[in-house]
Design goal:
Number of strands: 5
Helix content: 25-40%
Shape: globular
Mean pLDDT: 86
Radius of gyration: 14 Å
Strand content: 15-25%
Number of helices: 3
Order of helices and strands: HEEEHEHE
Strand order of the largest sheet: 3-2-1-4-5
Low-confidence stretches: none
CATH class: Alpha Beta
Amino acid sequence: MTTTNRHVARKRRHRRVRRKIAGTAERPRMAVMFSNRNIYVQLIDDEARRTLCSVRGSGKGGGATVEAARGLGKQIAEEAKSRDIRDFVVDRAGFKFHGRLKAIVDAAVEAGMQNVKNREN
């Protein structure tokens, strides 16, 4: 039986998720990273290997909370709209899809973007 710590296990999950998704210019990958103080959100075009837009939560006064995550979701949606980006696919980076991550995605969808995985066709 192997023993791993939670960071190694998350990295393994992240590699597994990244094998399945990739961003394009029309449908970028929304990459989310959590630190102890901040939340970072980027929209990435993997074909061109460039970041299309990014936002960061401030570390002052609890920058890594669910409320701050909702604000970041709205900010990234506004940035994307200014660049004519409507669709995105979520890169959950090995994290569970709940709490702050879910708040970011839900706020972006409420602000007018579309999560490609959850679109009903």
